[in-house]
Write a structure and sequence with these properties.
The chain is an alpha+beta fold. It has a domain at about 30-120: rbstp2171 (2-Layer Sandwich). Helix content is about 30%, strand content about 20%. The protein contains five helices and five strands; from the N terminus they run E-E-H-E-E-H-H-E-H-H. It has a three-stranded antiparallel sheet. Strands 1-2 form a two-stranded antiparallel ribbon. A hairpin with a 2-residue loop joins strand 3 (about 55-60) and strand 4. The longest helix is centred in the last third of the chain and has 12 residues, at about 85-95. It is globular, with a radius of gyration of 19 Å. It starts with 7 loop residues before the first strand and ends in an 11-residue tail after the last helix.
Length: about 130
């Protein structure tokens, strides 16, 4: 694994050295050895089958691939949002899973790691509104 080091060390008066991580950069890592990894040509096939937006998600030592949520999936999930948020997320993740290591949906720790993926799978286009 290689990582670009872009962290900055800052001295706080009266305190210790503090490292401020640069969260705008992403570590470059080789994930080809992880469970569920698909080669770029396999991801291209997923795009042909499931639409042009495929998300590659690394959770621990596993890789999973998700498509954008359909309206039907979002409708079903939203019926649970007020009474069972975990069920809401599970419906989206299970129905959007298209490849890779499926155990990310079965293992609690992996599933909890996917929580941040759900908003990306349900993101729409930016809308503008103008009031007259």
């Amino acid at each position: 694994m290689s990582k670009k080091e872009t962290n900055e060390k800052v001295i706080i008066p009266g305190g210790e050295d503090v490292i401020i991580p640069d969260t705008d950069t992403v570590a470059e890592t080789d994930i080809s050895g992880l469970s569920g990894y698909l080669a770029p040509d396999q991801v291209a096939e997923l795009k042909k089958t499931h639409g042009t937006e495929i998300h590659e998600v690394v959770v621990g030592d596993k890789v999973a691939y998700f498509k954008k949520a359909s309206r039907a999936t979002l409708r079903a999930a939203l019926s649970f949002i007020d009474k069972d948020r975990l069920k809401y997320m599970e419906i989206i993740l299970v129905n959007c899973f298209v490849g890779g290591d499926r155990t990310v949906l079965e293992n609690d720790d992996d599933l909890y790691g996917l929580v941040d993926v759900v908003p990306e799978l349900t993101k729409g286009k930016l809308a503008r509104i103008k009031k007259y």
